[in-house]
Design goal:
about 80 residues; alpha+beta; two-stranded antiparallel sheet; about 45% helix; globular; disordered C terminus; binds zinc ion
């Protein structure tokens, strides 16, 4: 309704379009990652990576990155 509200929404984290690189912990644009082939599936979950080195690292030891990621998310708390 308000004309100023739209830009705010764009800046918010949107899980539909954004993900987090499990290796670096950086935000990843899902479309860009898919275009670059920086995605991997592991146990039915799709993961998106920020750069070319990350999928390789992830494939060597996916578990450690997934677990690390969930821990750092807890530490991150709210915004
Ligand atoms: Zn990366």
């Amino acid at each position: 309704m308000s004309c100023c509200g739209n830009k705010n929404q764009e800046k918010q984290y949107d899980a539909k379009f954004q993900s987090t690189c499990p290796v670096m912990g950086s935000p990843v644009d899902k479309k860009i990652a898919e275009n670059k082939g920086l995605t991997r599936e592991y146990k039915g979950e799709k993961y998106y990576f920020c750069c070319g080195g990350c999928p390789e690292k992830f494939e060597k030891n996916p578990k450690s990155y997934i677990e690390k990621n969930s821990i750092s998310r807890d530490n991150g708390g709210c915004c």
